[in-house]
User: What shape does this take?
Amino acid sequence: MNIIKDFLLQLTLTITPVFIYYTFITEKIKSDKSRKVLFSIIWGISILLCMSFPVSFGQNARLDLRIIPLLFGSLYGGLWPSIFLSALIIFYRLHFGISIGFYNTVLVLILSLPVILIFQKSFSRSKRDKRVKIAVSLSFYYSLFGLTIFIILRGFSKNYLMVQMIELIFAVIVTYFFTILIETIREIHNLRVEMQNTERLRVISELTSVFAHEIRNPMQATRGFLQLLNDPDLPLNKKEYIKISIEELDRANEIINDFLSFGKPSVNNDEKVDVGYQLRRVVNIIQSYSLHHNVKIHTDINEDCWMYANHQKLNQSFINILKNAIESMPNGGIVWITCTSTDDGYIKITIQDQGIGMTKKQIDRLGSPFYSLKESGTGLGMMVSFQIVRSFKGKIQVNSEKDRGTEFIILLPRIS
Ligand code: ADP
Ligand code: MG
Assistant: This one.
């Protein structure tokens, strides 16, 4: 009975790091590299705990589920985490003294690690079902190897064999459920990212039709001037025409650039971003959309507000909020945008409209998926904005009064 208890403790020790990792790390840590390092450290801690509270039986014989963290660290992390975790196992085992158990550990590792690494490549390319099969087979292989080497080194005993068999069955079952659990969590995570992308594409497609005007206007103006330049009885202000044409073309170019950068999927999550500058670009992108809705945008933007973020995502969250503000005024009106730094280390952005406003109940529902009061709304814009701001450790406050207007206050951590 004690043995089963010990195994259950082992189970807890291996399962806790997974939850810690997926609850506190995957979404919060932005850079891939630090995520990988933390990932290895967490699995490393799991290995140390497993080895510190082993299932003890017989003389100087210890058994534990270290295969679980080793296996998952290697399969999901790749070469370096696997080397780190193996080295950790060997050094920690050394700390208990060089005994037959130590040789046992080293031998099993030498024989099974290369096999795990060989399968790691096909694991990372495979779909969920195949991943489960690979992980379970490797866990079975490792435990069987452990069992065989144990018998070779220490001789056969019925009691030992029974404990080893329990370990094997335990390891295989735990691996099976673990892989499914991790895969499910990863799927949910990917789905979220995909949803953000879909919403961004939808916003782009909505903006493009109005955006086309914005490009056409300067083109038409320039064309008119070129025609004039061709006129032999050209009035005197030739230079002026050329100057205006160049300005118009530059503006069109700027809009295209802003638009393209907004549409690109983003990679770097940790760049230094000037929030004020980005806010201006967002206003540029949305300008034609707002004019189309008879809405004027007034800005008071303080540049030189820097933070670590991903500028595309940040812009996406601004655009979603701004678009709602514009849409909340069916008869037109004014949107005020401000951006300042606060004394307590934040960048404060406010976006205020004179629109239809929201009741307390509506504010509470804001940000839940598919909540929309618009006929053709998706109800994803606010959810995405909240997610993005939260991922940059920021906050959003909403003040609103029915039929008076709404104010969004976005607080983002500033680089001091
Ligand atoms: P969608 O715009 O597709 O409806 P959102 O998630 O962007 O979805 O917004 C959800 C809902 O929140 C909107 O349908 C609207 O009712 C409400 N809302 C958001 N912003 C404002 C605002 N500035 N003024 C009034 N209502 C708003
Ligand atoms: Mg919206």
